[in-house]
Specification:
By secondary structure, the protein is of the alpha+beta class. Helices cover about 35% and strands about 35% of the residues. A hairpin with a 4-residue loop joins strand 2 and strand 3 (about 50-60).
Length: about 80
């Protein structure tokens, strides 16, 4: 895993935990597609057994997709969370 990818993941985890301390865990999923790498950031709350999709982005690399996601999370107050 590239160093910048790890740093971006850690920034996203820190930001999500700041915005929503009740979120139990943050997960990153990556899928290769014809359009590029699709990165999805989800949280899971074991108390309520609910999974939230925080953000999703497609880019040419994992790091670029994570940068897009980080920008989106920074610009929202958490109201864009959707159930999955």
């Amino acid at each position: 895993m590239a160093k910048d990818q790890v740093e971006l993941e850690n920034q996203i985890i820190t930001l999500v935990n700041k915005q929503n301390p009740s979120r139990a865990s943050v997960h990153f999923e990556y899928v290769d597609s014809d359009e590029g790498i699709i990165a999805t950031v989800t949280t899971f709350n074991p108390v309520h057994e609910t999974k939230f999709v925080l953000e999703k982005a497609t880019a040419s690399s994992k790091s670029d997709a994570l940068k897009l996601i980080l920008d989106k999370i920074e610009s929202t107050s958490g109201s864009s969370y959707t159930y999955s």
